[in-house]
Hints:
Blueprint lengths: L3 H11 L21 E5 L2 E4 L4 E4 L14 H12 L9 H13 L5 E5 L2 H16 L3 E5 L17 H4 L10 H4 L2 E4 L4 H11 L3 E7 L14 H11 L3 E5 L11 H7 L11 E4 L10 E5 L1 H4 L18 H13 L2 H24 L5 E5 L2 E5 L8 H5 L6 H10 L2 E2 L16 H20 L1
Helix pairs in contact: 2-11, 3-11, 7-8, 12-15, 14-15
The chain binds 4'-deoxy-4'-aminopyridoxal-5'-phosphate.
Amino acid sequence: MTTNQQAFDRARAAIPGGVNSPVRAFGSVGGTPRFFVEATGAYITDVEGRSYVDLVNSWGPAILGHAHPSVIKAVQDAAARGLSFGASTPGETELAELILERVPAVEKVRLVSTGTEATMTAIRLARGFTGRDLLVKFAGHYHGHSDGLLAEAGSGLATMAMPGSAGVTAATAAQTLVLPYNDRDAVTAVFAEHGDRIAAVITEAAAANMGVVTPLPGFTAFLTETAHAHGALLIVDEVLTGFRVGAGGWLGLEAQTPETPGYAPDLVTFGKVVGGGMPLAALGGRADIMDYLAPLGPVYQAGTLSGNPVAVAAGIATLRAADASVYRALDLAAATVSDAASAALTAEGVEHTVQRAGNLFSFAFRSAVPEDYAQVKDQDAFRYPAFFHAMLDAGVSLPPSVFEAWFVSSALDDTAMGRILEALPGAARAAAAA
Ligand code: PMP
């Protein structure tokens, strides 16, 4: 039998750090990353044959749990008809229409392969459409790894405490203005100074790459108004939240909240759930802006595998299966797990907050709910590795960083939930002792 350690050692000889995406290396929690061979429903199994209840779920896509029968069937059927044509297929239109139905702000949509491509293209499009160069983003928000978006980004950069990336030119970095999240004064000030040069503001629909940090009520509406008053666009990044926190994503949830003023983003990006676990993402928005893309308009974007038929089949099957009962199950699972984890930490006297954005949630080891990246970083993060490893030892796989959200699936049945609830008190004890 291959051990996780052997698999990791072998990988490190061939792949930088042994991983194809940095957070997988367990850098901030220590220990040996698990190498997985299969996953079904709520469970994922490593090379040693150990199964874990999975609360990562591929960082979001697997809302139905792993290898959902209707998704697998759709993928197998599509694969049998050919893996890639590099030409148009009816399925692409079907998926585009499903997105349009669920997200009213989206009038037209283009399919790409990764969330990084979706945000990168949205920004190029915003620049092309407005004829301006500057971009505003928020500290702790992650929008993928394109050059202009790595400044003070969340996700792996938060985990590794990297302020940005080497290899990004100073000229590119200078075109991204980074503001503290939820800070209206900072937004007003940046527009007062650079308003006629700002092409767009990009914001996570609800931030979830520095742990979960929700927009304060009305913040995104304020951003929209401010951007529009200066002729700039608003790009809402729903790569993580889209089709996960509800059928209409975070935009859909906010639209149902009476105390939140309505707003219409100009462009919206999607990934993860929209591809059902296959490499597929999308950007969409106002038709007049989207029509600025080639072949109609002057902004170029393309992809050999864009709208790949197998990925499209997975996306359609996932969105079709994600009905109201699935979102009810996700909400219930999120409430059960986050309440139980919080109760276990409280019982051990561990100071913490619970942050929730619909069924996405995370914890911070501090006394007050964080509203921005500076506050998120100001916590007893040293408690997380012990908590994480106690859960892993008890057969529950959590995100290997305190700066990431936990992802539930609708496949969490009573047995899986029981394992999580049993594991939490020991993990809380470990966190308290850290
Ligand atoms: N935007 C957000 C909000 C994300 O969470 C992510 C990935 N976690 C991305 C963009 C980038 O997506 P991808 O990893 O598919 O490039």
